[in-house]
Amino acid sequence: MKKTPDIQYPVHNLIKERWSPRAFSTKSVDNGKILSLFESVRWAASSMNEQPWRFIYASKENKDGWDKLFSCLNEWNQNWAKTADVLILTMAKMNYDHKNRPNEHALYDLGLGLGNMTTQATSMGLYMHHMGGYHADKAIEVFGINEPLKPISMIALGYPGDVAQIPNDIAESEYNQQERILVDEFAMEA
Q1: DSSP notation for 139-151
Q2: Which of 33, 50, 90, 94 is spaced 20 to 30 A from 39 at the CA atom?
Q3: What does DSSP assign to residue 119?
Q4: Is 114 exposed, middle or buried (CB count within 10 Å of its CB: 0-12, 13-18, 19+)?
Q5: Contact, 114 vs 90, CB < 8 A?
Q6: Which residues are 74's β-sheet partners?
Q7: What is the pLDDT of residues 58-101, one digit of tens each?
Q8: What is the rounded distance in angstroms from the CA atom of residue 1 to the CA atom of residue 16?
Q9: How far apart are CA 86 and CA 82, in angstroms?
């Protein structure tokens, strides 16, 4: 199922085609493709070239790692994310290496990296669903995460699948038209 958003101004097709499904195929994502996604993050801009992004990921081929990541999701996201071949925990290193001072731009930089990753995934026929619904404290415990690393979000990654495989109440959102506020509601010329 492919959603086509109502575009107000021309944008690149990769931006227009991006969406966040909850129904994923059982098709495995090749490890080379996963590494290409991380390569796209590698080349994102970052403050002082700090590259504060860090990731823990596993495909279903790595059952133990995938199960650990899955256990960090909240129950609602577990109901549908169980179909994704790959789960990813995103983290940000909250201090600069230089003088070990706080990096106030770490989350911004992670966002730039994830933007690259999302666009790269779309170009490869892969889809990502970014999630805030997870238990950061559990991720810290399960993976032994220490400061200055901070868990930020999780991602379900894979190929689009059959909506019938996820619960009906969740599946309804797969049919909804993507909506966004209009450009003039968030961009004001000085």
Answers
A1: HHHHHT--TTEEE
A2: 94
A3: H
A4: buried
A5: yes
A6: none
A7: 999 999 999 999 999 999 999 999 999 999 999 999 999 988 89
A8: 15
A9: 10
